Amino acid sequence: MSAAKLFFFDLDGTLLNSEKKITPATYAALEAWHAAGYFMAISSGRPMVSITQVIRELNLEGFSPYAVAFNGCYIRRYGEETPLLKYTVSIEDMMLVAREAAGLGLYVHYYDDTHIVTPLDGRELQFYTRVVKLPYRVSSPLTDGIEKESCKMICIDLDTTGRQALLADKIREKTGGRLCCLMSNPWYMEIFPSQAGKGAALTALAEILNIGIENTFAAGDEQNDISMLKAAGCGIAPANATAEVKAAADIVCELDNDHDAFAGFILTHCQTGDVSI
Fold it and tell me: Whole-model pTM?
């Protein structure tokens, strides 16, 4: 077998198409990657329970993937319970974020071990759970329900009012940079410990697996993917990626996530080791 390799895939907008599916051509490419003896990781802003649901629903269990949840805050191998890495937001900082968001009239929620904890059952929650199908409990005000640290919080602004940028500035200032605020799509701002992130997770997992960074790959389409594209030996953006992501990538695909953006690259690399697309 050739040198071990590791591929980090973002889910939404990257590995998954617009119907939240993996197409047959992309699935066949992943089979070839696994058959070559290489490793893969599913890296998403989603909570761990949602990522494991996706792995089951899309029949990815046979690839023994690593699940990287909450924007790199939590890593474990699928089928195993012990985390390889876990970062959390302190209760103090969760309280601060909840108060600052409320002051700006913004929606924010966090996660306990099994549920989304939300300040209200409104349009933001319903929009979020159309994809991330998790149970939820309402705590109003949100600060009343905070009893345990969460890996991340998320601020949702469906009207894209620009207030998320104000919240991010307040959070950075009042936490002294302890928390990172990044957009994962036009409506979601991810809030998590600054020492985490998808790039930090890729570096950590590569070290755990004793894989050189030159043998790591990452694919993503949004701002929260940039750190892993930069950390990887080869960062790849689909055609549907934002301009900022494309600028950070080593390779920009001609195809988007609805047209098997990465299938050709994966198959070619498995056969020849070539990193062109």
Answer: 0.91
